[in-house]
Amino acid sequence: MNVEEILQTESQIPLESRTIIHFLLVNNKINESISNVLKPFDISPQQFNVLRILRGQNGTPANLSTLNDRMITKMSNTTRLVDKLIIKGYVDRITCPSNRRKVEINITETGKKELKKMDIAMSNAEKKILKNLSKSELKELNNLFNKL
Amino acid sequence: MNVEEILQTESQIPLESRTIIHFLLVNNKINESISNVLKPFDISPQQFNVLRILRGQNGTPANLSTLNDRMITKMSNTTRLVDKLIIKGYVDRITCPSNRRKVEINITETGKKELKKMDIAMSNAEKKILKNLSKSELKELNNLFNKL
DNA sequence: ACAATACATTTGTATATACAATAATTGTAG
DNA sequence: CTACAATTATTGTATATACAAATGTATTGT
To answer: Which of residues 67-106 of B touch A (CB under 8 A)?
Structure first.
């Protein structure tokens, strides 16, 4: 994935700008791939993200602010996102007994089962995206990201 | 930016998944920063992208499919995106005389002037995002991206 | 106990985006 | 030269997202 080629420019782009643009281009590719993986499951990347967070809770219910904190893409409307997962039967939501302002959101058995299928598809897609990088290159990439 | 810390998990995530998640997290940070830079100019990242492409044309008008090809984030509605830039007076659009199916889109002088201001703000933001990476680390990052 | 404040979520609304359908123009095969 | 296919852009519509306002509940100070 070459920046100059895609942008069709001959001019010299400053290294910082080039890096950011490069980053956005790669990100786009990743997003596309993720969307394709999830499309058969009729679930959006954000919904998938929420499901994974809930599973990671290991049975401890999550409330909305917890979800928001841990979501990759923060969005102001986790309520409606959870609504959609409820309709699909992947999560349930009850008002927190000890503090009725809060809600308790849990992944259902159906949700876990479906998530497992998605994981496999996702894992394959990830490997495909990153197939040209060696283990050490992957580590290097993570190290660089850590610095940001 | 540490993945495990943000995801609040103690479990070992496979290197590939970790890289992708890491990528998405960094991307989110970049997007946020870009949005903040552009907010005072009342322009979306996509609109900014289109303006830059048009400037890069050096006077050669672009039609919609050219824009679509070069845009970082492809979206199906470049028409309405251009509409908004026209309202702001940053670009103009005429139907192509030689092929009336096509349109010719150009950046205006006002557009160029505003874009110059945005560039400065954007460049500062880019430097800020990448401030913890050395020149050689930036190059390394670009090299890794090239392989994807 | 009451009012004021803070908290957690939900709802309203405007804008953005994705995808499909439509319209307008051009190219082409017979 | 006409019918049909291909190209390019626009419009319609449903869903997603961002941001602000509203709702319901809990906490705090007096």
So the answer is: 70, 72-74
